[in-house]
Amino acid sequence: MSKLQNSIIQGDCIEVLNKINEPIADLIFADPPFNIGYKYDKYYDCVKSKNYIAWTKTWMQACKKNLKPHGSFYIAIGDDYAANVKLIADEIGLTMRNWIIWHYTFGQQTKNKFARSHTHIFYFVNDKNNFTFNDHAARVPSDRQLLYNDKRANPKGKIPDDVWNQYSRVCGTFKERAQWHPCQMPESLLRRIILTSSNPKDCVLDPFNGSGTTAAAAIQLGRNYTGIDISEQYVRNTRKRLEKLKKLTASQKRNIIITQLLTDMKLPPSEILSSKKLLTLFANQLKIRTDNDQPYDITMIEKSLKDLQSERKERT
Asked: Domain range spanning residue 69?
């Protein structure tokens, strides 16, 4: 396992995973080709439907074989094969916890049907009675807290819904975008999944490594990672991307957590900075998310928010 941990491996994920003798992953995130005609470096994403479904079952079985008994398994998939993924999961013994809809902006434009602007994300577990779900790491202030000053509000905030609309697609002009890959998941979406369904030092596996976003988010959050990709180019570029992240300072890591909460709350830094109430709620939610007994220094949070605000202005 030590050879696989914190490594990006070049090869076919089915072949690589089937050679492993014991489960290695506490969490798996898979974003496979959707069979919609994308041209990747070493794979053309257009095969007969029956072949794609058979291949999907094979790689899902290989992943499940490497998922620890308490592990969680997330799969992102498009409309055309979402139902097949659910049926295969049932067949191989996975339990569904959520059928998440990731609704994003910058959807595909169409002329004779409604524009598609979502992806399905399945959340499965190996054991319905034994799995990791860190609710404190996902909670956000509720409307009862933010808008209504309702005393009945849970002071810990609320668990988000299963429709996620705060994560934009990573478009070509975005600073986050790796220009060498045709499609890329947002780091913020992966961070929500990793924070909620794994613990520090756990191993996060991505069988379709692509641009390396899963591994990048894992490093940011103190998790171990294993990525697999068939493309030598994608593997090489991912390794370069990850080397930069391994040099993050404590301040940068703190800002990542603050940025995540900002994104999940759907609020810009300026709005929180302009309201003492919001700033207090933000600090309290940050304390809850990090499972920290000590309250955060408001002055430190203000400085981090101002820094993030300046960074965003520089990008525009």
From this structure: 7-245
